[in-house]
Amino acid sequence: MDLGLERKVAIVTGASRGIGRAIALVLAAEGCNLVLMARSRNDLEETRRRALDANSRCSVEVYSIDLRNGEAIDHAVARYGDIDILVNNAGAIPHGSLLDLDEAQWLDGWQLKVLGHIRMTRGFYRCMKSRSRGVIINIIGAAGERVLPSYIAGSAGNAALIAFTKAVGAASPADGIRVVGLNPGPILTDRLLGRLRQRADRELGNAEEWQMFTRQMPFGRAGDPSEIADVVAFLASPRASYISGTVITVDGGLANRPAPT
User: Fold this and answer.
1) What are the chain's domains?
2) How far apart are CA 92 and CA 248, in angstroms?
3) From CA 192, how far away is CA 197, in angstroms rounded?
């Protein structure tokens, strides 16, 4: 299926690995020209290499940025304002219950993900509005709807971004812009794999037995980053031109199961 993304310009944050890297590779294969953003330039260069392997005709630029820094975001907007697609993917909020996390951990996680998504959206929205076109996709997380006491900072932050995405996306069609969100469930990134290995080591005495826990997930496995990336490519495309102000969950139905305490 031709998604009509040839020569569109897309920014992908958190593109150094995991879901962000998978999104970059799919968009490159679809013909997008890319600006890849993250803190780690070395990992971004690896994503750039893979994107060019996927499509040597696209252009791929890397831009090292700490999205906790509002001034840095302002500079990025000034430099790359003329884009078609913004994918806000960066950010990892620490796990822990209410009393496990101190204020510094809350603030650091929210500065990067919650305020990072909001600041990037506000900055690039202005540019898109001036041209009456653009798509903003916020990668959020299913814990915002299936809240977990053991991931309270992430659940609260994701819930805030879900509300933010729906509110902005409800008004944005008047400006020719679509704003949508995507809630990934358990996706087998390096981060999830590390947590599964720790759990297997703690509970089973062998980190290599981590797949025992994925068998309890929908379809007996964790999702693959490419399964998120494919949905993002569709949402970014003209094929999804009547979708705005909503958040799509890709978790194998996990959000509708009872949440553990």
Assistant:
1) 9-187+223-243 (3.40.50.720)
2) 19
3) 9
